[in-house]
User: Which sequence fits this backbone?
């Protein structure tokens, strides 16, 4: 019987034994077929296996969450502050719009009343000034000039109608002026009624 030579070290291990390379295994015998230096992390492997293979530890995850959490909180706080600012801004503009619309309605109502009744008296003029007294705080100087002119022309009409003999030519001139102001008022007030403009 032929005797096989003993390997160095006095052991039979390794004699006639070849390491099998299974299909799909990489250079390191990786069960996921990855080449040397790469690691695979299938989703169905246990957490301990994933930690060992991917180099991700719970400590690293905790540090990442701790670093990202303040940033997320800061972003959320900034968004809430911006949303609150927009809500307050829209509420302010709505309240401003209502006050401006009240003065615009008083102006157009005054002009329409003079045209329809063909007269103007002092009491109506005083009422008009009282209803539009806040215009200086809500509009620009052009609105103040416009309202002052309505007050002036209303007093002039009242004066000419009280004169004896009457001045029908002056009355007609003032009546035509009031008629034109119905469309002129819309042009002057329009930019203050637009929510998209910051007036």
Assistant:
């Amino acid at each position: 019987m032929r005797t096989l030579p003993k390997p160095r070290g006095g052991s039979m291990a390794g004699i006639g034994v070849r390491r099998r390379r299974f299909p799909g295994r990489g250079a390191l015998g990786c069960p996921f077929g990855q080449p040397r230096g790469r690691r695979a992390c299938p989703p169905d492997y246990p957490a301990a296996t994933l930690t060992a293979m991917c180099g991700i530890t719970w400590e690293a995850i905790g540090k990442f969450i701790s670093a990202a959490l303040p940033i997320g909180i800061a972003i959320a706080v900034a968004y809430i502050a911006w949303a609150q600012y927009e809500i307050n801004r829209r509420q302010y503009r709505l309240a401003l719009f209502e006050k401006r619309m009240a003065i615009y309605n008083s102006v157009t109502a005054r002009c329409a009343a003079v045209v329809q009744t063909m007269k103007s008296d002092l009491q109506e003029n005083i009422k008009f000034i009282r209803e539009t007294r806040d215009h200086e705080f809500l509009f620009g100087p052009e609105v103040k000039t416009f309202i002052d002119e309505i007050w002036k022309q209303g007093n002039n009409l009242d004066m000419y109608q009280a004169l004896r003999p009457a001045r029908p030519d002056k009355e007609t001139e003032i009546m035509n002026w009031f008629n034109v102001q119905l469309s002129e008022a819309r042009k002057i007030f329009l930019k203050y009624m637009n929510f998209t403009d910051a007036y």
